[in-house]
Design brief:
Immunoglobulin-like; four-stranded antiparallel beta sheet; 20 helices; about 10% strand; disordered N terminus
């Protein structure tokens, strides 16, 4: 096995077989060559005295070929070697070539053309350039890499025949550091590591480096190329993963990219857990429990232990089970532990759930007032159209309220009662900002306030617009005053303190007596406007407002749709 034979710093390459012999061995069934490139690597393996150097061909992702041929050319383009084999079921090929050729210097390039034939007859080709380095050069490169104080360089990687245009070239700085540290941990105690063993370790470390590069796109590449090698392609979670949309796959990959993985087995376990968690919120509530039951034991077996109270779930009524499914699909989960806690908390919430009695929404003004009709209100500028309040057919089935679990119950129940609607059939847009007229509509509908008044006092209120009837009812109940310039503020976002004032006044008009259950007040109570302080304090003491999570009320900030739903639902709970 003499691929290169040294003479000072040179090597002599000798042809093992002639080109005519190679041509005669090509299968007759191959009539054309596919231009598709084969996904492969070529490595030079040296030994201490350079007497048994060899070329190693590694084909990625495939191992079944009817034919493989390799031809080698020197830097001047002269043929200097050939190798061929047929009916192979492997993906790593080692060989060497001999001929009386000219001397090739250390550092000179050798061109290697690899051609493989699949059982289908398709032929794939790729041309590689391999630079010859001596054993001493490879030892120096290894020493450099094992010096963790100096980042691993592309030059050292090339000397060791690491495919710098492949996976290594894609690694982020974090991924390269992970590769280097992994090799240091394995070889730091060895005085002169064998280049062949080191290359094998480097290849494995680079694959791990892909999933430790903090990059979702590299996670996707790793899963696509290594799914069979790491044993995830036969898992039910892999089928779930492949069925996800591109956006959902990217979300899973980005979440996986946040982790650190010391072994491929560890990555496979976390992969199973992340796909399981992500899939829950994508299931319809009619089958989410079956999905969880079918998979939660597998999660425990995969190193993600779960303790779920299915015994308590089985005791729920059908209505309570439906409510439970609504809660459990209404959010996304960041960890197995969080899901376990939320699952069992949802069981408790569902066990206390009582379906509300059907209600007939009240149009805020007379004149043709059924819940399916459009009423009118007499105003100073004529007749104002009042839109009907219609319960959406799938109320409560919003898929985007996972980010606001503290408001989920409020959103679900107010939607069922027709107080609020989603932005489409499946989404509520909980972080969307509420305008002044939108909030007035919500509170009038929630507390069923009636009455009418002249809306012409507000210059920006247009007769016939959907909001006019609700504003008319709000004026009649003295719960709105408008802005200082004589307008109501149509289209303006409502602030948290203005929202508090309106709902506090509306509660008084509805005969609601707010209790005092706490003396807690926000840390920024002094920044609340004087006109809003009474309302904010009352709502805080009643436990309806809890602030922003950091102790502030944030009076001037805009109110979100989720916040509006939460506060309205809280006040409505005191209606007798």
């Amino acid at each position: 096995m003499n691929l290169f034979k040294t003479k000072a710093l040179t090597k002599i390459i000798t042809v093992v077989c002639c080109l005519a012999m190679l041509v005669s061995l090509v299968p007759a069934s191959v009539t054309a060559t596919d231009t598709t490139a084969i996904d492969a690597q070529v490595k030079l393996i040296t030994n201490a005295d350079n007497t048994q150097d060899k070329l190693r061909i590694i084909v990625n992702g495939e191992s079944d070929f009817t034919w493989i041929s390799v031809t080698v050319y020197d830097e001047e383009g002269d043929l200097c070697g050939a190798y061929q084999d047929r009916n192979i079921v492997r993906n790593v090929f080692d060989f060497n070539l001999v001929t009386p050729g000219r001397a090739i210097a250390v550092g000179e390039d050798v061109k290697v053309v690899v051609s493989v034939t699949r059982p289908s007859g398709t032929v794939l080709n790729k041309t590689f350039t391999v630079r010859y380095w001596s054993f001493a050069h490879q030892q120096t490169a290894i020493s450099n890499i094992l010096n963790i104080a100096v980042p691993m360089t592309t030059a050292d990687a090339e000397i060791l025949s690491i495919d710098t245009e492949g996976d290594f070239g894609l690694l982020t700085n974090e991924g390269k550091l992970f590769v280097q540290q992994t090799l240091v941990d394995e070889y730091a105690s060895q005085p002169q590591p064998d280049p062949e063993a080191f290359q094998i370790s480097a290849d494995a470390a680079i694959k791990l480096g892909l999933i430790n590069s903090k990059s979702g796109s590299l996670i996707a590449r790793y899963i696509d190329r290594e799914k069979t090698a790491i044993g995830i392609d036969l898992l039910p979670e892999f089928a779930e993963y492949t069925a996800l949309s591109t956006a959902d796959k990217n979300a899973v990959n980005d979440k996986l990219a946040l982790g650190t993985y010391n072994t491929v087995a560890e990555f496979a376990e976390i992969f199973q857990g992340e796909v399981f968690l992500h899939s829950i919120s994508k299931k319809h509530k009619s089958n989410v429990v079956l999905f969880i039951q079918a998979n939660y034991q597998r999660q425990s077996n995969a190193g993600n232990p779960l303790t779920l109270n299915f015994a308590a779930y089985n005791l729920l009524s059908d209505i309570q089970k439906d409510y439970f499914s609504t809660l459990i699909t209404a959010r996304k989960y960041t960890s197995i532990g969080e899901f376990e806690a939320e699952f069992n908390a949802a069981i408790t919430a569902a066990s206390n759930y009582v379906e509300p009695a059907p209600t007939t929404p009240t149009t805020p003004a007379g004149g043709g007032g059924g819940s399916d009709s459009i009423g009118t209100v007499s105003g100073g500028a004529g007749s104002i159209v009042v839109p009907p309040i219609v319960t959406p057919p799938s109320a409560g089935g919003f898929k985007d309220i996972a980010s606001v679990p503290w408001a989920a119950e409020a959103i679900i129940n107010l939607a069922k009662d027709g107080v609020l609607n989603g932005v489409d059939g499946e989404n509520f847009d909980p972080e969307g900002i509420v305008t002044r007229e939108q909030f007035v509509k919500m509170i009038i509908a929630a507390l069923k306030l009636t009455g009418s008044a002249d809306v012409s006092k507000f210059a920006d209120v247009v007769n016939g617009e959907w909001y006019a009837g609700y504003i008319s009812a709000a004026i009649a109940n003295d719960i709105i005053n408008g802005t200082s310039d004589g307008e109501f503020g149509i289209g303006n976002n409502i602030s948290r303190q203005d929202m508090s004032v309106i709902i506090y006044r509306a509660a008084e008009k509805a005969g609601i007596v707010l209790p005092e259950v706490t003396n807690d007040l926000p840390s920024d109570i002094d920044s609340v406007a004087d006109y809003a302080k009474t309302a904010v304090i009352a709502l805080y003491k009643a436990g309806i407002i809890n602030g922003m999570g950091d102790g502030r009320f944030a009076p001037a900030e805009n109110a979100s749709r989720a916040q509006a739903a939460k506060i309205i639902y809280g006040v409505r709970g005191f209606v007798k």
